[in-house]
Design a protein that fits this description.
By secondary structure, this protein is an alpha/beta fold. The chain is built from twelve helices and 26 strands. Helix 9 packs parallel to helix 11. The structure holds alpha-L-arabinofuranose.
Length: 563
C-alpha cells in the first residue's frame, strides 16, 4: 500500500538491479496431453470431481473485461494508429486489435484510466479534432524524457467518441472512469449527459451528434474516481465516502439506471473497505442500492519473499527468472482469492444483502522495467508462459466466486503490464495472456459448478527451505450441456495424471486445448508470434470418469459435451 502510494507520488524513480539465473529449460519433456479412459480405481495421482448439481452462480461475462489508459504506448500506437495510417485500421483504430478482441468476445472495456482518469477533462477529447487542446499527461513525471512526445503530452486525438467507436467495433460495453480528484461533480453530470442524453435533447447531445453519433451511447458503467486512496485524491475513506455521495447523487439516468463503481481498496487495505462501508451505512443504508461495485486493485509485484516492501526493490523480472520466482508469482497472485473473501466479509457487516459486488478492475503481475518490446513504452512488459498460468489461475478464482465478483479487468489490454497484445507501428502479436482469454471466453455467462480438486502439491526450494504450492487449480462452468473445465498445472516438470469425474452426468465426447511450452520463459514477440499458442487435442473419450495427463507448466481447457 505504502509502496503503491509512493509509486504514484514518486513515479517509478530508479529501479534496483538484481541478478537472476539465466533462462532455463524444463527438465521433463512436454508433449500434448494424452487422454484415455480408465475405470475408477486408476493409479492417477490427482482427481478432479465436478459436482454438476452444486451451482455457484452465473459467471458474469464482464469478469473477462479489459482496461485502457492514456499511459505509455497503450492508446497511441497500441489502439490508435490514425485514419490515414498505412496500418490496417477501422476509423483510426488498429484493425488487428479489433479482430482479436472480437475473437475472445471482449465484453467490456474500462477507460481512460487508471490514475490518468483523475487528471482528465473529458471535454478536451470531444469536438473538432483540430480544436482539441494539447495537455500534459498525468504520467509525465514517471515516463522517460526520451519516450515519444505523445506519451508525455496528450493530444486528445483519441477521446470519448473514438473510444465509443472502438467499443462498437469490438462489440463491447464501455466503462468510463470519472475524475473525482481534479474536476467538480458537475463535470461527471455533464459527461453522463454528453454520452446518454437523447438525440436532440441538450446542447451536449448536439455536440455528440456533430461528432458522428446523434443516438446516445447509453453508457451504463461509471467509475467514480480511481484509487482515491492514492493518485485519485489521496482521500481518507470517510472523505471519499462524502465525495462519492456528492458525485453520484441525482446523476441523470435517462430511464436507464447507471451502474456506479466506487473506488475500492488496494490489496489488503481492509481499513479502506471497512471505513467506506461504515460511512455509507451511517449516513443511509439504502445508499447501497445505488452502488453497483466496489473496485479492488491487486498487483503482484513483491517477489522479495519478505525481504523488502520497497516498490522498486521488491520487483522481479518479466523474462529472467528462476524456478523459485516462477512459483512465487503464482503464490503471490493466488492471494487475490483471500482478498476477495476478506473484503466480501467486511462488506457484509454493513451491506448484509450484498447489494454491492466486487469489481477487480486492475490485476496482474507488475515486474521491473526492462523487458518492453518497444523501447520507451512506459510500463510495458512482455508476458511469458508464467503470466499465462497466472492469468488462468486468476480467472479460475473469479469463476469460483460468481456471487461476489461481477466485473474485472487486467492491467492493461495492450502495450502495458499484463497485456493480451503487444503492438508497435505495423507489428502486432497476441501474448500468452491473450491466448488464455481466448481459451477461457467459453466460461462467459456459464453457470459455475463446484469442483473438488486434489493433487500432490508442487514443492520447491524457497530460500533453501521446502515450500509448497497447490498441485492443480481450476474452475468449471456449464451451458447447454457443454461443460467447460479449465485447469492449471504449475509444476515445472511433473505431469499430473488425473481422473476427471462428473457427479450428475457423463461425458459424451470432448476436446482438450493446451497452452504450454518446454521453456518456462517462452513468450511471443513480433518476430516469433507463435512460441506460445494453444494446441487443440481432439477426441477425448466418453464416460463418467476419464483419465488424462495434464502437462507440466500448462493451462488446459477441457470442453466436454455431456449426456
Ligand atoms: O495500471 C497502471 C496504474 O496502476 C494505474 O493507472 C493505476 O490505477 C495503478 O496504480
Amino acid at each position: 500500500m505504502i509502496g503503491r502510494r509512493k509509486f504514484v507520488r514518486d513515479a517509478m524513480a530508479g529501479a534496483a538491479t538484481l541478478s537472476f539465473a539465466p533462462p532455463m529449460k524444463l527438465a521433463g519433456s512436454i508433449g500434448l496431453m494424452l487422454a484415455g479412459s480408465r475405470a475408477v480405481g486408476s493409479t492417477a495421482d490427482s482427481r478432479i470431481e465436478v459436482l454438476l448439481d452444486e451451482e455457484l452462480g452465473t459467471i458474469s461475462p464482464n469478469i473477462y473485461g479489459h482496461f485502457l489508459e492514456h499511459i505509455g504506448g497503450v492508446i497511441y500506437d497500441g489502439v490508435w494508429v490514425g485514419e490515414n495510417s498505412t496500418i490496417p485500421n477501422i476509423a483510426g483504430i488498429r484493425k488487428d486489435l479489433i479482430d482479436e478482441m472480437r475473437k475472445i468476445k471482449a465484453p467490456i472495456v474500462r477507460y481512460p484510466g487508471g490514475c490518468f482518469a483523475d487528471s482528465y477533462n473529458w471535454r478536451d477529447g470531444v469536438g473538432p479534432v483540430d480544436q482539441r487542446p494539447k495537455r500534459t499527461n498525468f504520467w509525465i513525471e514517471a515516463d522517460s524524457t526520451t519516450s515519444p512526445a505523445n506519451h508525455r503530452f496528450e493530444s486528445n486525438r483519441f477521446g470519448t467518441d473514438e473510444f465509443m467507436r472502438f467499443c462498437k467495433a469490438v462489440g463491447c460495453q464501455p466503462y468510463l472512469a470519472a475524475n473525482v480528484r481534479s474536476l467538480p461533480a458537475e463535470s461527471l453530470d455533464r459527461w453522463v449527459e454528453y454520452c446518454n442524453s437523447p438525440a436532440g435533447s441538450t446542447t451536449l447531445s448536439d455536440v455528440r451528434a456533430s461528432s458522428g453519433s446523434s443516438e446516445p451511447y447509453d453508457v451504463q458503467y461509471w467509475g467514480v474516481g480511481n484509487e482515491s486512496w492514492g493518485c485519485g485524491g489521496n482521500f481518507t475513506a470517510q472523505e471519499y465516502a462524502v465525495e462519492f455521495r456528492r458525485y453520484t447523487n441525482w446523476l441523470p439516468q435517462y430511464g436507464k439506471p447507471l451502474s456506479l463503481i466506487a473506488s475500492g481498496p488496494n490489496s489488503d487495505n481492509w481499513q479502506w473497505t471497512r471505513e467506506f462501508f461504515e460511512a455509507i451505512a451511517q449516513k443511509d443504508k439504502s445508499l447501497f442500492d445505488s452502488i453497483f461495485g466496489w473496485a479492488l486493485h491487486y498487483y503482484t509485484w513483491n517477489l522479495s519473499r519478505g525481504r523488502t516492501e520497497d516498490w522498486d526493490k521488491g520487483k522481479g523480472d518479466a523474462l529472467q527468472f528462476d524456478v523459485q520466482d516462477w512459483y512465487e508469482v503464482l503464490r503471490e497472485g493466488g492471494r487475490v482469492e483471500s482478498l476477495i473473501e476478506g473484503h466480501w466479509q467486511i462488506m457484509e457487516e454493513f451491506d448484509p444483502d450484498h447489494k454491492v459486488k466486487l469489481v477487480v478492475d486492475e490485476w496482474g503481475p507488475w515486474y521491473r522495467p526492462g523487458s518492453e518490446l518497444t523501447r520507451g513504452n512506459f510500463l510495458e512488459q512482455v508476458p511469458t508462459l508464467r503470466d499465462a498460468l497466472f492469468s488462468a489461475m486468476t480467472l479460475d478464482i473469479f469463476n469460483r466466486h460468481p456471487d461476489k465478483v461481477t466485473l474485472a479487468s487486467p492491467a492493461q489490454l495492450i502495450n502495458c503490464l499484463n497485456s493480451l497484445y503487444l503492438a508497435h507501428e505495423d507489428k502486432f502479436c497476441v501474448t500468452p495472456v491473450g491466448h488464455v482469454f481466448g481459451m477461457y471466453s467459453a466460461h462467459q455467462g456459464g453457470r459455475a459448478v463446484r469442483t473438488i480438486i486434489s493433487a500432490p502439491n508442487a514443492n520447491y526450494s524457497r530460500d533453501n527451505k521446502t515450500a509448497s504450492l497447490w498441485g492443480l487449480a481450476g474452475s468449471a462452468s456449464i451451458q447447454n450441456k457443454e461443460l467447460m473445465l479449465t485447469v492449471v498445472n504449475p509444476h515445472v516438470s511433473e505431469v499430473r495424471e488425473t481422473d476427471i469425474s462428473l457427479r450428475g452426468a457423463a461425458i459424451r465426447s470432448g476436446t482438450a486445448t493446451v497452452l504450454t511450452n518446454s521453456d518456462l520463459h517462452a513468450h511471443n514477440t513480433f518476430d516469433h508470434r507463435n512460441e506460445v499458442s494453444p494446441q487443440v487435442k481432439n477426441e477425448l473419450p466418453g464416460g463418467k470418469t476419464i483419465t488424462v495427463e495434464i502437462s507440466p507448466a500448462s493451462v488446459t481447457k477441457f470442453a466436454l459435451s455431456l449426456i
